[in-house]
Write a structure and sequence with these properties.
single chain, alpha/beta, Barwin-like endoglucanases, 2 domains, 3-stranded mixed β-sheet, 54% helix
Length: 272
Amino acid sequence: MGLVITEKENNLIQYVDDNGDRIGLNNSGVLVPKSYADEYRIAEGDSIGIKFTAPEFANKTVDMKVLHISTQYSNPSFYITPSYLMSFGIDYNPTSLLVEADSTTVLTNIRTYFEQDQQVETVADKSDLKRSAVYMLKQNSFVFILFIISAVVLSFGTIYTISSINIYERNRELATLKVLGYPRNKINRLIFFENMILTTFAVVVALPIGAYLYKLAVNAMASAHQQIPDQVNLVVIVISVSTAFTLTILSNLLIRRKVTQINMIESLKSTE
């Protein structure tokens, strides 16, 4: 994992914590990526040993104070200021340059200039970083899509099966309602409201359990070199709840035929 040395007044690099709030860099500590902190259980205020493997540093190791835990989803790095590094008696020569371009034309000229210099190894801009982030998301998207499809199929199958069993076990009751003159639509409405109440109860119970299982899955796939968002926002919750009720409505529409096919004479026969 790399170490980035930059001035604290650098406005081109922004640091945020786990809640998305801005954090600053100063001369009293190092910013540690959250993926690394989670992997090795590091907290703010701890001291960590950083080893400089470059030949000119002769594998020197220094203990640095953890200033903040920084959220970094792609290419995580440690961040310190030159002054803090020099407080350990270590001098350095910059190996990278971060510049800001006012327009696309200026950016093209800058890339062309540096790409022609044989001493420059790599030139990257925001579009390159965006492609790297998209690639990281695609690596994990298949797993999450598979989870979503499996959850939808399983939910629909469960709701439909429970509704079918409910109708089968209540054949006598439903047949009695038919004999007493209850309209078919009223019987369907009764079953519909019962299923909606069950779905509401299931949603209330499933939301905290689902959030917990999601965090477990994220922790299992995350590593020191990759951080995955572990927070479930309100939009995702609303979509999940809406999907659950939509599946319930669809299931109710499919079991209407079962209510229509109830044989009143056979159902009312004594089972003794």
